[in-house]
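Supplementary Text 2. Reproducibility record for the structural model of the 205-residue chain.

All settings were left at their defaults, and a single model was retained for analysis rather than an ensemble. We include the record here because the model underlies the residue-level annotations in Supplementary Table 4.
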Amino acid sequence: MKKKLIFLAIVLGLAFRIYAQEIPDFYIGTNPISLSLALPIKEDIKRIAPVLSGNEYGLSLVGGYYLNPQIVLEARLAWGRLHKIATVNQFHAGMMVHPFVKNNSKALKRIYAGLFAKIWDYHNRLTGINFYNLSLYAVIGYQCGKGRWIADFRLNQTLAIVSWTDLEHTKPGTSAFFSPWPNLIKVLPTFSCTINYRLGRKKLN
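Retained model, structure tokens:
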């Protein structure tokens, strides 16, 4: 836990340094629903609720940088307990495009679509075994905000996944993948909400 707090402090320190230098079009944020999953809630709820948090658990940190008014690069970190014996650590990186924004616009970006890759580490704390997933997923979303604050709502649809483990005598597996519970629902996107704060000189209109 101490290492995570130190890492978070370093990231926030860098963000405020960027703010002091007034570099435009950069934001940091968090997923509030993911944060709520760090609270002591029922295990059954904790297994289902991630559909409403973009499959993120616990502490969440988001950072984005606008290459221009139409294109933004975004990275996401999340780490937390899935249930009593397992923790999940994950890193996402991708690009989003705002197709209805003119290249010289300074307005809020509104509707967007994008493509992300995610690496997921499921760690069993009792056995010490790690299960890893590398997945590709598409997003479509909408932003609204006031001043420097941005509320970001999106749907995330997984497309394909590669899975492996550090268990001996096991091999990686690759598959098209469209649902957290494919035996029940063949296609099921997840929802996520992020609250972001925009740094730099520009404010939202």
